[in-house]
């Protein structure tokens, strides 16, 4: 027989541990993405606002968060905020750290998609006397969304990969589970390779969906059937 | 908890050593990534289906898995394959392999941007394949690549803290060690963050300047 009982047991143990880790990874990705979407819109609208102070604050936010890396921000939140009397749970730290870092990039995506909406549309909004909220919800956003979603989706793939960083602030995500398995089983190369494949299996379908959506919304621009 | 300026100043030399290692790994890794990225982009246009498949598989695998786990695999797998390299070389290889996948994609776009007429003219003038690539296609494809490469260079620089996980004594590792030895977290991490900003912000401004100049 090729596999004896103990090998199967070990395999089952590995699978269970990694599945638990993968769930945590997906959970962090989901909540961080919520932060990303909210903050991206807030910052993008601030950058497009007529008040200089708001624009300036938003620019500083984007430049600083893009200048320091996600890991540095995570460690800052995890080790330094407690010194100022603010203690966040590791989960919150992970979600906030990744969410804020990616929102700096996301706000640029949102901003360029919003400012891509044709000038005439804005004039029409004014001519028809829409209030700002209705205009944004019914005119600007529906036209900006197809430009926004593909890069946002690609960014989500990046976010999913980057969640591996939270293993360094003691969160038991997929990478952390891999590390734990190695302390009990050894077999570094094998376990890390399995972890790599797990990430691939989660990330690849996501990026396939993004590509499909992109092809659908841009086929009219390329003048071919979808 | 206050910020001790004297202590912060005293750790600058140690952190600077780390910064030098970081820069060294980034520059070597970037060169590797550009070279390999170019090869992958050319392989994607190959008429050989197997070469095309392989390079496509490489790109999608490396783009859909985290760099940190790739580094772990390399760190443990290379010695198994009989290659015992210092950690820094593993870091250079890891960064290079990962970013090559991204840079290849950018190269592919730039190469596709070269008008088809250029290929046809090269063929009409009976240039061989290598000359066409070297003298006609690549010079035209590389120019719009410059700002893109700049962004990847900065991106790589910001990913280097990850190299600490495979024991490379770069900037982040240096800060972590100081924090671990002195139990002071505020100063090392703050000085480290400032050093990151001090490199990445001017580099990004420089590439923005290049980009603006090349558009004029």
What is the fold's blueprint, element by element?
The complex is a heterodimer of chains A (226) and B (216).
Chain A: H1 5-47, H2 52-67, H3 70-80, H4 90-116, H5 119-127, H6 132-162, H7 174-185, H8 188-222
Helix pairs in contact in A: 1-2, 1-4, 1-7, 2-4, 3-4, 4-6, 6-8, 7-8
Chain B: H1 5-10, H2 12-44, H3 49-63, H4 67-80, H5 87-112, H6 116-124, H7 129-142, H8 145-159, H9 171-182, H10 186-215
Helix pairs in contact in B: 2-3, 2-5, 2-8, 2-9, 3-5, 4-5, 5-7, 5-8, 8-10, 9-10
GO biological process, one term (chain A): amino acid transport
GO molecular function (chain A): transmembrane transporter activity
Membrane topology (chain A): Multi-pass membrane protein
- Sheet/helix structural class of chain B: mainly alpha
Q: What is the total tally of β strands of chain B?
A: 0
Strand portion of chain B, in percent?
under 5%
Tell me which CATH architecture of chain A applies here. Orthogonal Bundle
Biggest β-sheet of chain A, characterized?
none
Number of strands of chain A: 0
Quickly count the helices of chain A: 8
Any idea what the radius of gyration of chain B is? Answer: 21 Å
Mean pLDDT of chain B: 86
Q: N-to-C SSE series of chain B?
A: HHHHHHHHHH
Q: Uncertain runs of chain B with pLDDT below 50, 5 residues or more? A: none
Counted up, domains of chain A total 1
What's the CATH topology label of chain A?
MetI-like fold
Instruction: Give the end-to-end Cα distance of chain B, rounded to a whole number of Å.
Output: 51 Å
Q: Please identify which CATH superfamily of chain A we are dealing with.
A: MetI-like
Overall CATH class of chain A:
Mainly Alpha
Give the proportion of residues in helices of chain A: over 70%
Q: Largest chain interface and its two residue counts?
A: A-B, 35 and 35 residues
